[in-house]
Amino acid sequence: xxxxxxxxxxxxxxxxxxxxxxSVEPGxxxxxxxxxxAGKTTLFNCLTRRCTPDAGxxxxxxxxxxxLPPHSVAGRGIARxxxxxxxxxxxxxxxxxxxxxxxxxRAGHLAxxxxxxxxxxxxxxxxxxxxxxxxxxxxxDVADHPASGLPFGTLKRxxxxxxxxxxPRLLLLDEPVNGLSxxxxxxxxxxxxxxxxxxxxxxxxVEHHMGFVMGLCDKVVCLDxxxxxxxxxxxxxxxxxxxxxxxxxxxx
Amino acid sequence: xxxxxATLGTDRARRLRAALTxxxxxxxxxxxxxxxxxxxxFQLTMVLLYAVALAGLNLLVGFGGQISLGHGAFFAAxxxxxxxxxxxxxxGHLATLPVAAAGCFLLGLGFGVPALRLRGLYLAxxxxxxxxxxxxxxxxxxxxxxxxxxxxxxxxxxxAWSGLAEDQWMYFVVLAVATVALLLARNLLRSRVGRALLxxxxxxSAAEVMGVRLSLHKTLAFAWSAMFAxxxxxxxxxxxxxxxxxSFSFVLSITLLAGLVVGGLASLYGPLLGAAFVMxxxxxxxxxxxxxxxxxxxxxxxxxxxxxxxxLAGLAGRVRGVITPLLTRxxxxxxxxxxxxxxxxxxxxxxxxxxxxxEPVGAPPRTEKE
Lengths: 252, 370
What we know:
The complex is a heterodimer of chains A (252) and B (370).
Chain A lengths: L1 E10 L2 E11 L4 E5 L6 H8 L7 E6 L2 E2 L13 E3 L12 H8 L8 H6 L2 H20 L15 H14 L4 E5 L7 H17 L3 E5 L3 H7 L2 E6 L2 E6 L1 H6 L1 H8 L4
Parallel strand pairs in A: 3-8, 3-9, 6-7, 7-8
Antiparallel strand pairs in A: 1-2, 1-4, 4-5, 9-10
Chain B lengths: L1 H34 L2 H26 L7 H19 L3 H25 L2 H21 L1 H4 L5 E2 L13 H24 L2 H11 L1 H6 L4 H27 L1 E2 L6 H14 L6 H19 L4 H15 L4 H16 L43
Antiparallel strand pairs in B: 1-2
């Protein structure tokens, strides 16, 4: 479904990614792990066209992703969440989710200003769909609350709801359980598993929480200093000496 | 559950109150020109006219998170379009409106392109330069614009069937234009494109990931905004019957921006309050001090921003935000409850349960990247 081949990104003298290659099969969940600064988020940014690699290719369902303008990525069925929340703080929770559905709407500026009947209809549909998603993720109570000043765990779910509103086939989660309490992590993991089945999603997850990654993913890719140092099923990765040295560490 | 019932009850009461307020407002607005003296009606007409320009500026600054110190120039462009058409081609008044609107829309589209690459102070500077350079240009183009002497054209005359005086007729025409303009702005904001605009303001990169085409929405925001200013300018010509380069110095642009900030950024009725401020406060300042009205005007702006940093439109919300906790101190606020799925270990975070309207509606636009 997604094939990343030999991508390299350099920022000045720093090589953030150096010839990284891996593939994601439909319906699977792939974990990206590695120490801070290993290039995981940069890789995500390449997949969503926030950053253009200096070399390499990214193909999504046999289409060259790097040839697309950034705003077209969502329309192809790719959504993401952000490491430190990328919500719109002054919009309500519902509006945030409705922005996620932006690429499915058709209303243009003129039609919207005149509020033509089809715009009304579209607004109603998008609103209903957003409310349905909010209910599904247990956010109906905060739908009209601005997306700031809510507990962090709630905002993480809002961001997931917004990403699901894109109707993605590939969902990229950037540190989804970072900053959550122990109980919240388990709950979020259950939620991700549930929506993965419900919405038939393929997942790529960047996360430091090993329990979350190992429990969710079918395959794990480990990066260090921009290079892939290991790839394989979770059990193998946990035993891989290179991964242990670079990232997991050995017991004293 | 009782909490829910209470919320429903207040919801209905609030809706009823809103309907009553709207009805009273409509009655007041329609009755005003028959109650007030002609000069006061003229002042009200000017308030409505400025409100159109401010509503346009609000689309750009309040909702779009961009900035313009050049809206006086779009206003002037609209005014001169109308004046030149009336003076040289003797078209009717109504014919000038679509031309001024379309012309300023295109002009705004043109300015929207540099705005894609500039932000904050840099954008302010570029738009200010437009406002600074337009009046001398108008003076130079004497054959068309009448140079420094300006152009005197016919004011809008009431048709015989209306039975209204000139000031009353103008008031109603401007009222109609302002109503349509404010409705268009409101419709725009309550749609997919409006949300896209707000999303771009709040977090550009997240908006783009969600499929929002930044260049399209940012340039169109500029174009709409310029169009509103141009329409206001066109109507200004109808009402005043005279345009000259000195009426549209760059001070007008700054006054418009100040009016908007005082009225309330990103608020639907902030432009109306801001327009009233722009219209009445200078004359109030004149009354207080004949020697230095500018100083009084400036001090009044400072005073308003001190009392209501989110603008006059946010004042009611702020007052409510202060009073409500005092009234409901005994019972926890029902505005936000943490969802049931929240683990029991997580505290209900009482600090986060402030009512939604305590959130500043018109917090100043943030221009830095996340």
